Amino acid sequence: MRMDKLLANMGYGSRKEVKTLLKQGAITVNGSQVKSPSIHVDEKKDIVQVNGETVEYREFIYLMMHKPPGLVSATEDKRDETVIDILQTEDRIFEPFPVGRLDKDTEGLLLLTNDGTLAHQLLSPKKHVPKLYYARIEGEVTEETIEQFHQGVTLDDGYETKPAILNILEAGSVSEIEVTITEGKFHQVKRMFEAVGMEVVYLKRLRMGSLELDEDLELGEYRELSDDELSKLIQDTKKS
Predict the structure, then answer these.
(1) CA-to-CA distance for 112 and 94, rounded, in angstroms?
(2) Which residue among the candidates 103, 105, 156, 157 is catalytic per the annotation?
(3) Does the N terminus or the C terminus of the chain have fewer Cβ atoms within 10 A?
(4) In whole angstroms, what is the distance from residue 113 CA to residue 111 CA?
């Protein structure tokens, strides 16, 4: 990788700022001073230092966010603030993107990464990675509703969903439920309840595969995945 690209990716400034550091003699590779921004280094083997500080190269970043309502699950949007906009600069430089989407008014677990391979695997319909949601429903959810979801329901566009697991936490004029789906159709949970004559008034994603929302994360907060969480998530993609 070119030196200027490597250091820019690792947060040492823009490529122009990196060139200035090079001219100042602040950068060494394996103990030898370098001044050319176009020099190529092996980011996994060469020891690159900036003002004596060793650069710890990372290719990928994996973030768990407790998405708040009001943010769009996208890398950019002309009208609304996105989940990327609330990331710290040192995390944005990795150019992460949301894995799947949560509606603007939906909150809960959102995974952000720049690992396209893992994201593709997690979202692949062939992998059937389950997603667990908590919701409050306008209308009384019954055993009949559970069976309807178990059979799969027909959405407004004629699409028949795969079976979903519906668990009633509290039934009443406003019911509280948990639902597990293995797909990610547009507004799917909301449309599934609309298909049985009910309305979702609050929706929160709690889990994606083995990855559970950290209860210590406040709305809008995020953290990096632990090695164990990442390992289990990768294992999720190997199931079918």
Answers:
(1) 11
(2) 103
(3) C
(4) 7
Structure confidence by residue, pLDDT tens digits, 151-175 = 999 999 999 999 999 999 999 999 9
Cβ–Cβ under 8 Å, residues 83 and 72: yes
Active site residue 216: no
Whole-number Å distance between alpha carbons of 217 and 205: 13
Pair of tokens at residue 132: 């667990």
pTM of the model: 0.85
Question: What are the two backbone dihedrals, phi and then psi, of residue 187, each rounded to the nearest 5 degrees?
Answer: 50, 35
Beta strands 174-181 and 131-138 are antiparallel
* Residue whose entry in the numeric block shows the structure tokens 């998405």: 67
Long-range contacts from 80-83, C-beta under 8 angstroms, 24+ separation: 80/104, 83/110, 83/112
**Residues with Cβ < 8 Å from 193, sequence gap 6 or more?**
135, 137, 139, 199, 200
